Structures are given as C-alpha cells and as structure tokens.
C-alpha cells in the first residue's frame, strides 16, 4: 500500500482546494445530519475512483444524488453490522430491569449477578467492536466492487475481505491516526503564533478531517484494486 500517495494525491488535482473546501463545509454542517451521508458518499467516490484507476480520484460535487445514495446505503450497511452490539445492550438493559423488579432477590446477590452479566456483555461488546474495526473498511470495499446494497449483506464475502486484508486495514488505520495526531500538534503549535498562526491553525483544523477522510478512501481503493485481493465466500 502506498500510504504517502494516499495523503499527497489530493494536491495533484487542479481543483483540490474547491473540492476539499466543499467537503470541509459539509463537515461543519454535519450537525444537520444530511451532510454526513454526503461525506460518506464522497469517501465512497474516492474509493471507487482509485479502484477504477482514475487519474484524478477526487470526485466532483456535481452529483449530490449519487453521493447521498452511496453514503446512506453504506451507512445503513454498517449499521446492520452493529446490530449485535445493540442487541447485547438491550439484553443488559432488560436483565437490569428484570432483576431490579424481583423484590425477594437478595440485594447483594442481585449486585453480583448484574455485575457478572454486564462484565460478560462488556467483553462480548469489546470483541464485536474489534471485529467492526476490520469489517467497516471491508463494507466500503465490497460496496465499491459490486455497486449494490445486497453485496454488503453477503457476510461471508465481507468477512473474507476483512480477514484477507488485516495488515493493510491496520496500516490504513494507523496512518490515519498518525496523520490526525500530527495535524493536531501542528494546529496547537500554530495557535501559539498570534493572529496569523491562529488563523492558519483554524483553517488547517477545518481541512484536516476531510483530508484524512479522502486519504482513507484512497487507501481503501488501493486495497480493493490490489492484485493480491482475495475474496472468499466463506469465513
């Protein structure tokens, strides 16, 4: 995986400031919820363009309908894979309510049982959270490779992508975290400089999120298009 390329390809596009600027505005407006799907869709677009070998992987913002569709489908797909976590939370809540309603139950015994129950559930949720760490990129890749929602629901193939690409997925996550940390340090350092430094720091902090987002999309596209990519129907 070419991690350096994932972070530098942006500036190779003549319109990168405009494209990334629009992404930054969408990020600032994410509290409206709707722009979140556009941003996810834009990341899907980057992944798709890298996978297809486009010379300029940064998508245009001229087809908001497609961006929204891609974003909402992938978001729903990811939510479906988080359902086991929500089910475990519900089980814990039901168990808590159920035990608290048993008046004849010894308080000390009830605390012990509930503590054990939540400890077991917490361990299971932690395991699922780690699994989702690898599954989320695989969902992106599966959607881009097949261009339909149903493909994301073929669990065996999604798990196969995650399993066969553990190393590049970890590399992408570490690179994104390192870039985020470096940008945070840079912003903090710029804020020490009066006026101009603070202004540059604000601009950098606004652009950082979208930049890292498209870099992740680029890395996912590299994984999807790699010759070593293996997708198995069973896990």
What does this structure look like?
The protein has helices at 3-8, 16-28, 34-52, 64-100, 107-146, 149-152, 155-164, 166-190, 196-225. The model is unreliable at 230-235 (pLDDT under 50). α3 (34-52) crosses α4 and α5 packs across α7 (155-164). The protein is an all-alpha fold and 235 residues long. The relative contact order is 0.16. The protein has 9 helices and no strands. 78% of the residues lie in helices and 0% in strands. The radius of gyration is 21 Å and the shape is globular.
Instruction: Provide mean pLDDT, rounded.
Output: 83
**H/E order of the elements?**
HHHHHHHHH
Count of discrete alpha- or pi-helical segments spanning 4 or more residues = 9
- Form type: globular
Brief characterization of the structure:
The protein is an all-alpha fold and 235 residues long. The chain has 9 helices and no strands.
């Amino acid at each position: 995986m070419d991690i350096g390329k994932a972070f530098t390809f942006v500036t190779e596009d003549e319109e990168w400031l405009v494209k990334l600027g629009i992404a930054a505005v969408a990020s600032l407006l994410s509290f409206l919820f709707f722009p979140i799907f556009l941003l996810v869709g834009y990341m899907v677009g980057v992944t798709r363009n890298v996978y297809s070998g486009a010379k300029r992987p940064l998508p245009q913002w001229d087809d908001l309908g497609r961006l929204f569709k891609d974003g909402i489908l992938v978001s729903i797909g990811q939510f479906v894979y988080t359902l086991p976590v929500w089910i475990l939370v519900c089980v814990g809540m039901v168990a808590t309510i159920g035990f608290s309603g048993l008046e004849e139950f010894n308080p000390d015994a009830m605390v012990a049982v509930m503590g054990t129950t939540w400890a077991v559930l917490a361990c299971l949720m932690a395991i699922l959270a780690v699994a989702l760490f690898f599954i989320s990129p695989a969902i992106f890749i599966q959607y881009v490779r097949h261009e339909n929602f149903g493909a994301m629901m073929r669990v065996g193939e999604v798990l196969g992508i995650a399993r066969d690409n553990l190393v590049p997925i970890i590399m992408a996550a570490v690179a994104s975290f390192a870039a985020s940390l470096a940008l945070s340090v840079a912003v903090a350092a710029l804020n020490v400089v009066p006026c101009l430094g603070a202004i540059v720091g604000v601009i950098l902090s606004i652009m950082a999120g979208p930049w890292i987002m498209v870099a992740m999309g680029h890395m996912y596209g590299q994984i999807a298009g790699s010759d070593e990519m293996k997708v198995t129907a069973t896990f």
